[in-house]
Specification:
It contains 2 helices and 9 strands. By secondary structure, it is of the alpha+beta class. The longest helix is centred in the C-terminal third of the chain and has 17 residues. About 25% of the residues are buried.
């Protein structure tokens, strides 16, 4: 199995705030891979949630032009979190494809993410680290 790379997408249920867990799997764009953890950027679909694009901390991702292989509909990336996940080999099965988000879109999202974090405070409840046990509890299909 191909190793995890920045720009790939994991599909996971996560804690997106200290006290809030997702009910469904969401795409998580891999932003950074460090020895024993992954930093991800949460992505959600815009369908039925276009109002989310009014928030300055959400950035639109067009699933077309070029057609993306890692997200399947128009979406938005959430810049106002710091989400880290303990890295473990079995998390690789949560990739639906091994391709990455197209380079231009990936670079735009990463630049916006860096700028948001540089110029804004991240609320304490939006800084979430998930252990392997957290991920396995929320995503029992991994094992």
């Amino acid at each position: 199995m191909m190793p995890l790379e920045v720009g790939q997408v994991l599909w996971l249920k996560i804690k997106y705030q200290i006290d809030k867990e997702a009910d469904t799997e969401h795409p998580m764009l891999v932003y950074k891979i460090v020895d024993n953890y992954i930093e991800v950027i949460a992505i959600d679909k815009t369908m039925g949630k276009m109002h989310q694009l009014l928030h300055p901390y959400n950035i639109y991702i067009n699933s077309q032009k070029p057609k993306e292989k890692v997200i399947f509909q128009d979406s938005y990336a959430q810049l106002n979190n710091i989400l880290t996940i303990e890295y473990f080999e079995d998390i690789l099965i949560t990739r639906r494809v091994e391709e990455k988000l197209s380079t231009n879109k990936m670079n735009q999202i990463f630049n916006e993410y860096i700028n948001w974090h540089k110029n804004n405070s991240i609320l304490e409840n939006r800084i979430v680290h998930m252990t392997k046990d957290d991920i396995l509890r929320l995503n029992p299909k991994i094992v």
